[in-house]
Amino acid sequence: MEKIVILTGAGISAESGLGTFRDEGGLWAQHRIEDVATPEGFVRDPQLVHDFYNARRAQAAEAKPNPAHEALARLQREAKGEVVIVTQNVDGLHEAAGATRVLHMHGALDGALCAACDHRWGAPLTMAPDDLCPACQKATTRPDIVWFGEMPYYMDGIWQHLEEADVFAAIGTSRQVYPAAAFGQHAGRAGAHTVELNLEPSANTRDFAEARHGPASAVVPLWVEDVLSL
Ligand code: APR
Asked: What range(s) does the Deacetylase sirtuin-type domain occupy (predicted)?
């Protein structure tokens, strides 16, 4: 039974209206990473960080899955073997399209975390620095998002999936942030057929055995069709 492991990035949600990070005018052109996506930035100005994620949460709440998200959910339903989606994205569009096995390695906008007692709960649409943790009642709540310098979630399981993969596909990601940037090499070394599905060639597209370039909503359904017809 063929095992397929898929890494997705902001590009798969671009056609759902959600911004990417490093494209022209992307999120990191509008905000300094050190201010809104590091633990130090959160300690310095928690209101600024909550405002950044409140805006992204409101935008994500209005966004709809696009044909690329729907195609991956179809692949999970119809493929004979296991299909695992590892996403760097914090929107819920894979789940909204019906995907089931989705590992949010960078957390999720709909999650809240207590920095004091590690309690996790469903984030309200708007969070603020004086929100109290429902468990320990301290004003130490934060978005359940993995920031730069923090360890991504599910890494033990992800390395295992990559070693077991027959096919590894990277979709809509510039593959510039580690450890995700190394997933293709790790899976390829373990024998997986590696595919890049991206709007344009990424910086290290030649690491991959196969590459298809174009908008995810066009490229991904065609790729899924081909995989299911094998
Ligand atoms: N279809 C397919 N690919 C697209 C589309 C589209 N419509 N639009 C953009 N892309 C591609 C771009 O070519 C680029 O390679 O999506 C990629 C987006 O790259 P980034 O903006 O770097 O986003 P991502 O790779 O997800 O960033 C990874 O970096 O800042 C951190 O935590 C953040 O999870 C994020 C991580």
From this structure: 1-230
Which pair of tokens denotes residue 20?
Answer: 């990417």
| Packing angle of the helix pair 67-78, 216-229 (nearest 10 deg) | 20
Asked casually if ipTM beats, i.e. exceeds, 0.95, the reply is yes
What local confidence, expressed as pLDDT, does residue 49 receive? 97
Q: What is the pLDDT of residues 74-107, one digit of tens each?
A: 999 999 999 999 999 999 999 999 999 999 999 9
Ligand 1 neighbours, Cβ below 6 Å, are: 9-11, 14-15, 20-23, 26, 88, 106, 172-174, 176-177, 198-200, 202, 215-216
Domains recognised in the chain with CATH numbers:
1-17+64-106+152-230 (3.40.50.1220), 19-62+108-145 (3.30.1600.10)
Pocket-testing residue among 145, 146, 148, 173, ligand 1, by greatest number of atoms within 8 A of Cβ? 173
| Interatomic CA distance for residues 181 and 170, integer angstroms | 10
Report how far ligand 1's centroid is from the alpha carbon of 10 (Å): 4
Burial class, 125, CB count within 10 angstroms (exposed 0-12 / middle 13-18 / buried 19+): exposed
pLDDT value, residue 205: 86
